[in-house]
């Protein structure tokens, strides 16, 4: 894994942004040019890079809620690798650009992909993605410490040390050890003497009560149109995070993920560099390929020697047959009134126990709401006329029928115009769902507390949890025009 370029940017919510440190590696750039051939895109000047990054991260053009080069629905975003579109001579795309941010700093790097630019390889096949993120996290710890924010003098002194540090740990653009960037600012327990060598990425050892926390979080996104001419889309993205407080220089921990007998195999699996060994079949399943049923379906064992700080052990995607909540939204206009009809149905496989569940119905680009006459079969409706927004709080449970409805009319006769938004014009309206379901995942993936193995001198307390979140969960008006997403919504 090598870097074409590295940047450290200071900013205040996108204002007064500047590049505090940058480094380009000519030898790596020469390899990139040779690999890309006629498709080669050179790294532009620092000012251009700064503007492209701030735009892509949504930190510039605060007066514009929609920026075409970033928000066009035809563009396929594949987190965590950003794509920067370069205009002018030699225009094209810089990819993959990795970024992390904390406090006043944004750390970014452009990785070298040892493959021709087309067809673009799946992220799951690129080890440089996880290694690059880990390198940036180590650099972040060196500059800011673990969860701390040094004074400006401390940050300036560490930025001044960076040229010599980068020369030692990343000569010619290739890290020798990820992320060997010295000890963090916060004090750590000294390393005990012994035959085991302290790894560069581990800054100390734990003393005290042994505890292992494993959290599995799945996020589901959905675009539902209620129209036979447009296919509904949804995807599931899972992450497993760990916090291991275990004694020893190199303790061994194994976390096992299991699926139900009829569960779909996990795909696009990315793992943390601390994982010591892995069955190659675990990494080969990709959502881009057609699933023929022969993919590895578990159990998924991840042996590793954990760092001290919380870290993401792995991430994955899963193909589930249906989204958790199916919606049908009908909106028609009569004179200056909107007739609203909405049905939400909780799928039978989903646990009927929410931490929260809300449906937001915005009505932008109109006068302010006047008369709101709507009835709901369950829950509570809150009206914000200033924001032209209805918030339907469904609470912690659907009724026994697992179905809720809303009917009514809305009149817009307020004294002033309401909020505006380019996505919600006339009958192009939508519902956005927000929910969290504890103690379940949509794929059925789980971490059995008894399957977590820890090889240490003391027996730890093991804590596991799982939960399901919604993100970008839209139900569009079936009688209006809605954006159409191209391809997969997520890696």
Automatic annotation (TrEMBL):
Signal peptide: none annotated. One of its GO terms (cellular component) is AP-type membrane coat adaptor complex. It is a peripheral membrane protein. Keywords: Cytoplasm, Endosome, Lysosome, Membrane, Protein transport, Transport. It is found in: Cytoplasm, Cytosol; Late endosome membrane; Lysosome membrane. One of its GO terms (biological process) is protein transport. It comes from the Eukaryota. The keyword Protein transport applies. SUPFAM superfamilies: Second domain of Mu2 adaptin subunit (ap50) of ap2 adaptor (SSF49447). Gene3D superfamilies: Mu homology domain, subdomain B. Residues 209-476 form the MHD domain. Probably part of the adaptor protein complex 5 (AP-5) a tetramer composed of AP5B1, AP5M1, AP5S1 and AP5Z1. Belongs to the adaptor complexes medium subunit family. PANTHER family: AP-5 COMPLEX SUBUNIT MU-1. This is AP-5 complex subunit mu-1. It comes from Echeneis naucrates (Live sharksucker). The gene is ap5m1.
